[in-house]
């Protein structure tokens, strides 16, 4: 009879304390909520064009691209959460953040992503001690 063993906890998650775990749960809940709103009512729903990922769009063009959309705020928040969780889970550079979502260019979303990543990642002291 084969023996089934549980996989060891990932090193990243094992370093998370209770406040960070609560924050991850809140992010997961908010992502589901915002994704549902955007999927149901988003102006870009069902469109497969590349307008939202054109390089070099300025904030005015990004704002115009999403003007009139009912769920701009939810789309922006979803973008920040998606970008943050992608970087938190997979690592990589903040340069991976791209496109226009919620009327915000990637450049305008990056400060929000960095702030949320700072709350999720352990401090340098905690990382050095581990």
List keywords for this structure.
130 residues, mainly alpha, 6 helices, 58% helix, 0% strand, disordered N terminus
Explain what the structure shows:
With 130 residues, this protein is mainly α. Helix content is 58%, strand content 0%. It has 6 helices and no strands. The longest helix has 24 residues, at 18-41. The model is unreliable at 1-13 (pLDDT under 50).
What is the number of beta strands?
A: 0
Count up the helices: 6
Structural class: mainly alpha
Helix content: 55-70%
Q: What gyration radius follows from the Cα positions, in whole Å? A: 18 Å
Beta-strand portion reads under 5%
On the 0 to 100 scale, the average pLDDT is 83
Q: N-to-C SSE series?
A: HHHHHH
Profile the largest sheet.
Answer: none
- Global shape: globular
Distance between the termini: 37 Å
Unreliable segments of 5+ consecutive residues: 1-13
Give me the secondary-structure topology:
Layout: H1 11-14, H2 18-41, H3 59-65, H4 72-90, H5 106-120, H6 124-129
């Amino acid at each position: 009879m084969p023996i089934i063993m549980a996989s060891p906890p990932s090193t990243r998650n094992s370093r998370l304390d209770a406040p960070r775990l609560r924050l991850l749960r809140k992010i997961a809940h908010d992502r589901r909520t915002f994704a549902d709103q955007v999927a149901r009512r988003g102006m870009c729903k069902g469109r497969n064009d590349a307008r939202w990922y054109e390089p070099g769009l300025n904030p005015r063009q990004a704002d115009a691209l999403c003007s009139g959309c009912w769920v701009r705020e939810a789309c922006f928040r979803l973008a920040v959460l998606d970008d943050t969780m992608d970087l938190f889970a997979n690592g990589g550079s903040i340069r991976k953040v791209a496109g226009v979502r919620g009327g915000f260019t990637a450049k305008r979303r990056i400060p929000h992503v960095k702030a949320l990543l700072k709350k999720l990642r352990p401090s340098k002291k905690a990382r050095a001690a581990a």
